[in-house]
Amino acid sequence: MKIATWNINSINVRLEHVLKWGQDTETDVICLQETKSVDKNFPLEPIEEAGYNAVFMGEKSYNGVAILSKHEIENVQKNFPDDDEDAPKRLIAADINGIHIVNTYIPNGTELWTDKFDFKLDWLQRLRKYFDEKCSTDSDVLLCGDFNVAPEEIDVWSVKRWEGKLHFSKPERAAIHHVKQWGFTDVFREKHPDFQEFSWWNYRMGAFPKNHGLRIDHIWTSKSLAEKCKDCWIDKEPRGWERPSDHTPVVAEFEIS
After folding, report:
1. What is the mean pLDDT of the chain?
2. pLDDT of 257 above 80
3. Contacts 24+ apart (CB under 8 A), 115-119
4. Catalytic option among 146, 155, 186, 217
5. Where are the domains of the chain?
6. Is 100 exposed, middle or buried (0-12, 13-18, 19+ CB in 10 A)?
7. Among 74, 101, 129, 205, which residue carries the largest CB count within 10 Å?
8. Would residue 146 show up in a list of annotated catalytic residues for this protein?
9. CATH number listed for the domain at residues 2-254
């Protein structure tokens, strides 16, 4: 069973990318972020025609998350349980084939030491609380998405360039580590401890050809699910397509009976 995460940076602009990639790679579950589509405009029909079920929630021009699955989708949770209807659309969770999948678009933060940065740190605290209250470390749990944090030095192309900057600051890294301490394994880093690979490259300054990127898109799992993980990899190919997202898919494959 293959599960992927991909910040698609507009589902309506890059629907063909999603469907082509899903078909070519035979991926069972695709978790999308930054879909930038209100629900009434979400392209459900072509997604279903491609063989996927879908659950989603979004807002115009920003945010938005979705889960596409070839398997049945059950027990859908949209946003945190205590969020109101106007809360940013950043989390969608569901049970698929025995796995509780939590797909997140963690806030960017915009700039250090601003209200939006504080919101990001608070949101990460709420994410940890969600797992403490709603999930068991003994069950198969998967957290994925655009975390907007590079956890380790190997996850940035230049430590000197990124030290103390947004996505690699000490408060963000501490906050995401606190989430990880719930009982998660970073399955990409578990399988490839020495690989310096990235999942995001700025559109500007020739970042992708120079490989000046960050690894900010992640798949983390509970211990029981990590033991079923055959491999996890970053597929750079879609980042080189015409009009690409600035992110590329991260994929994990599991041996699920």
Report:
1. 97
2. no
3. 117/166, 117/171
4. 146
5. 2-254
6. buried
7. 101
8. yes
9. 3.60.10.10
